[in-house]
Amino acid sequence: MVRVITVEREYGSQGAEFAHHLAGRLGWRLIDQCFIDEIASKAGIPQSLAKNCDERLDPWYYRFGKAFWHGSIERMPAVPEQEVFDSERMVGFVREYLNERASEGNCVIVGRGASSVLFETPHVFRVFVYASMVRKVRWFEEHFPEHAGSAEEEIIATDKRRAAYVRRYYQHDWTDRRLYHLMMNSCMGFDCMVQAAIDAAGLGASVSALEHRSV
Question: Is residue 74 one of the residues assigned to a domain?
């Protein structure tokens, strides 16, 4: 039986909002923004630093410098790895955190490459949410009116960043349909999306029992 649902999403597709509605309908824990807070606490770093490394690659010049530093023969002693927090270290915490949540079950996880990390984990149902560019631009303009002029550029750049993150650290194509059990266009609306996910994951009976108890 499915105990975890992962939700990967195009920027602006409202995949995170869908995940919120889905978790509420199932009575499960939503793993999204709390993710950053808990990892920051565990790593002993500011939340702002964890957020800067969230679903991101380190800049190319940082990666180049890091590779050069570790490969250099004539250099001063390197800073201990555990004292440096970057995207690569963040991924280590992400893998550990996601596996812990998956072992507990009853959660909906938003992004962070969870579909790749838990690809071979039993009882995990993987969802991808997408939308037309027109719909995504409209969402962006409503939420960030001060940046409305660069909406499409921001959307494309964010999706490229997420795809690069998954490709580098998990060796998966972020949009590959074979990575997911269900791919949905958010134009369906949240109610239809939630019901489709519940039915596809075979959780209808569990939801019916939950709703019956709450009556």
Answer: no
Range of the domain at 116: 4-55+88-214
pLDDT in tens, 64-101: 334 443 444 444 444 444 456 667 777 888 888 899 99
Are 41 and 144 spatial neighbours (Cβ–Cβ below 8 Å)?
Answer: no
User: Do the beta carbons of residue 28 and residue 179 sit within 8 Å?
Assistant: no
Residue 81 within any structural domain of the chain: no
CB count in 10 Å sphere of residue 99: 13
Pairwise CA distance, residues 112 & 91, whole Å: 9
**What CATH number has the domain bearing residue 169?**
3.40.50.300
Alpha carbons within 13 A on the beta-carbon side of 165: 25
How far is 156 from 11, CA to CA, in rounded Å? Answer: 8
